[in-house]
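User: I'm new to structure prediction. If I give you an amino acid sequence, what do you actually give back? Let's try with this one:
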Amino acid sequence: MPVIEINDLNVLELIPYVASNEIQLKRYFEPELGIFIAESPKVIRIALDTGYEPLSILIERKYINGQANDIVEKCRNIPIYTAENSLITNLTGFKLTQGVLCAMRRKKLPPADEICRNASRIAVLEDIMNQTNIGAIIRSAAALGIDAVLLTDSSSDPLYRRSVRVSMGNVFKIPWTYINGESPEYVNYLKHLGFTTTAMALHSNTVDIDNSELKKSKKIAIILGTEGEGLKKSTIEACDYTVKIPMSNEVDSLNVAAASAVAFWELGKK
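Assistant: Good question. You get back a string of structure tokens that encode the predicted 3D arrangement of the chain. For your 270 residues, that looks like this:
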């Protein structure tokens, strides 16, 4: 299929790149699975290598024979739309990172018990909505020995464009899915699966993150909460441990993404 020069921003086929509401993309093929947008050559390559199906590409003209040439060659059987940077920015409403976007079909998510079956270290994200934090946490999880990531239903979607980009494509490498149930039901479910449950929270009754008894656990679930309110009281009360990261200079806490990296480094050791 030839590369298609964009002249009309109202072309129906360009809707995935215009849609600012990513919930619409998630429902694009209802009742079938929806789509998501992968941004930057590196992220797109990882998605392709891990089996995600590309539907179309939007690429700045200068990258066709440049740093994204291998992607163009690999995706010659799908529509490849191109224009100058200014027109693409006008179309999407934002400046592209390294000049390439790819619309891709979502995969069916596995059930939680499936991805936890052989896992010894998992991260659980409770009601975390910030897309940058979601992407950063998943990147740290993939890098620091976490086997899988679970999200409560109120958490943001890891396949939203910003989260995918911030994760540097690691959202395609590490198993993740949503966990059913509210707190404390989901905490009890994790215990049923054999996990020692740890609430990362500022609390009066806590253990330090390097606690020797905690680290003896064969299976650990590291539960992280929202940036402002933190974990629900019911979650903290249901967990086996409430864990804190010791602070200096009267700093009370870390950003949840930074705290996750510290927790994964210390508790991800097997």
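You can read the tokens as a compact description of the fold. Here is one thing that stands out. The longest strand covers residues 53-60.
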